[in-house]
Specification:
single chain; 160 residues; alpha+beta; Thiol Ester Dehydrase, Chain A; 6-stranded antiparallel sheet; 6 helices; 6 strands; elongated; MaoC family dehydratase; HotDog_dom_sf; MaoC-like_dom; NodN-like
């Protein structure tokens, strides 16, 4: 695991990025999951399913409480990623998408979540490289991750 005192990791070029393949970077700092933030996410997405926004009804469910949306967990990925790895040495970087997204366990309100990332592959594509990174979101006190996803990013190396 990468030493968290040296985060974010700052590859300066494609060769340094390729050297990160197979390394786990992180974890991030813990993020508090509050009912207010989940309600705000529900408002933005229009997903007001009761298990996310109705604490009284959710208390009667097998989970015993409201839980964050799976996509809420995934949406933390970009901010978490910025705290783990910096692409500022590259001319341009962008989110290209996700593959293999899974939500193996619920994320109850009042929990804390954090993320690690692993650079899985760096593939040369026209105009730059595509980075595949495995993101694992863990809930404090749980052995099972709340989300696991492979993110895809595109980077253009500075030609100067």
């Amino acid at each position: 695991m990468t030493d968290t005192t040296q985060l974010p990791v700052r590859p300066q070029n494609v060769a340094e990025l390729e050297a990160l393949i197979g390394q786990t970077i992180g974890p991030t700092e813990w993020h508090d999951v509050t009912q207010e933030s989940v309600n705000a996410f529900a408002d933005v997405t229009g997903d007001h399913q009761w298990i996310h926004v109705d604490p009284e009804r959710a208390a009667q469910s097998p989970l015993g409480t409201t839980i964050a949306h799976g996509l809420y967990s995934l949406s933390l990925g970009p901010a978490f990623s910025y705290s783990l790895i910096s692409f500022e040495a590259f001319t341009h970087s962008l989110n290209y998408g996700y593959e293999k997204v899974r939500f193996p366990a619920p994320l109850p309100i009042g929990s804390r979540v954090r993320m690690t990332t692993e650079v899985v592959a760096v593939v040369h594509v026209p105009g730059g490289v595509q980075v595949r990174a495995r993101q694992v979101f863990e809930r404090e006190g749980s052995d099972k991750p709340v989300a696991v996803a492979e993110s895809l990013g595109r980077l253009v190396e500075d030609a100067s």
